[in-house]
Structures are given as structure tokens and as C-alpha cells.
Model the fold of this input.
Amino acid sequence: MRFLTLRYFYAVAKLGSIRKAADRLHVAPSALSRQIAQLEHELDAVLFERSKSGVRLTAAGEVLARQSHRIFRDIDRARAGIDDLRGLRRGEVSLWVIEGFVRGVLPKILADFQKRYPAVAFKVQTASTDRIIEALLEDDADIGITFNAAPRAEIETIAEFPEPISCLVSPDHKYAGRKQLSLADICREPLALPDHSFGLRQSFDRAVANQKLVPLVILTTNSLELTSTMAATGQFIAFKPALAVVSPLKSGRLLAIPVTDIELASARSSISVHRDRPLSHAAQEFLKLLTAEIRSSKEQPD
Done:
């Protein structure tokens, strides 16, 4: 099996289309198809199911795609290790974070790191907590920042920080003058909530179940930004952890009101890595800065 053929296969597997993969690799679709056919002949297995809309991995293709992913990630690590031996400060860090974090301290941390290591590149992906854990397990992420993630044996938590959940309301909402709200009060009003893959939603669902409440959930979405926008209309209540409420509060569009429930008040964010997977020098250095900067921001008075 030639490396180039494996590279072609992996591109098709990721993009789900021979034509898109050919465009990405700057080769003719017919040449790419021949490489895939040759690989299938060599392995004596059908790797893709073809259709008018594209291609889909077969069971055999899924096995090869997983192994290919590991191979290419190992090659990236080997390249980073060689760079480290040469004393170079280049490389790439794959960072997966919860959506609210990109509106907080992350831009400053990235900018500070770039000043120290100007040749290091970043891939930053926002996702739900469940998807971030999946990315760490599948070797798509070097570092993950999650919210109220359930413990996993394969995941090492480098640092945890308190992130109490507040409910967000418009200054025109009936609860705008309240100093705190009970979960029972909140559940009487229309709610805009993230979907169940978010750690925030999982915390809310546990708290509601513990009190045997029936919330009035009108909107479910994978966008925390949309939940805030709906709260700003004055008709909905939304929820966000402390790290995500700074921007909407500064704008004056929303007010943050603490929730009395212990499940929501004791929420936390975590910086995590895969327990058995070594980080490149660039990722190690960024992890140190990330942890120190977040810890410092938490220790500063409001």
C-alpha cells in the first residue's frame, strides 16, 4: 500500500466525495478513482458505497479510515518532534472549546502565545462538551475545554475552574429586578436551551429532574448565541456559564441572575487532554499558558 494512495483514500473518506477530494488534492477525479479502485483490489474489500450524492464508507472503509487517521496524526507528531530537536518553535495545535469560551479570554491567550511563538498555527473548533470529548478520544483534538463533562478513564483533566450557571433575561423581562431565581420560578417561563450534547443542558436537565419540575422549553438549539438572542427579545430565559456572559452583559442587552439550585451554582469548566497521548512541544507550551491565564482571570476580582 503506497502512502500516496492512503492519503487519497483518507481525503475521500473525510470529504465524502471523490470530486471534492480531487479538488482539495489538485488531481483529476479519474486518477483519484483509479487509486481507490487499486486500493480496494489490494485489500480485497469494498471501501466505499457509491451513489449520485457522493460516497459513504463501508464497514471495511471505516476500519481503514480510523487507522489512517492515527497514521497521519502520528506523522504530524513525528514532524513536531523533529522540529523540537532542531530547536524550532513551529507546529500546529488543535484546540476544541465550548462556544462561550471564544468570546472570553481565548483571543487574548492566542494573541499572547503568537507573540512568543509566531510560527505556531492553531485549529480552533467550537463544539458541545460531548463532541469535544469525542474529539479528544478520536485524536482530532490536542486540548479540549469542556463544561461539566462526565469523567472518562481515557481523559485527563489538567485544571478545573468554577463556572456557576446564571440565567439570562432582558432588562424588560418580568424577572429583571430579581437578585436570584429558583429553578421553579425559571421553569414557569419560556426557555431557550442548548441541545442535550451540551454540558450546560445536561446540568439543567439533572437539576430539573431532581426537583421533579416540568420546564417550558420552547427552543432547543446547538447555538448558545441563539439562546442569548432569544433572551434579548424579552420573551425567553436562557442560561450561560460565567465564562460566556461577559459580552452580552457589557452590551446591556441582557442581565445575569444567579440560580439558587446547587447543581447549576456548582458547575465547572475543565481543560483536558487524552491521558495516553503525548503532546507536541507547541501544544505543551500552549497548555501551560492557557491554564495559567485562565487561573489568573478567575483569581482577579470582578
Q: What stands out?
A: The mean pLDDT is 86. The CA atoms of residues 39 and 302 lie 60 Å apart. Residues 3-67 form a domain with the Arc Repressor Mutant, subunit A fold (CATH 1.10.10.10).
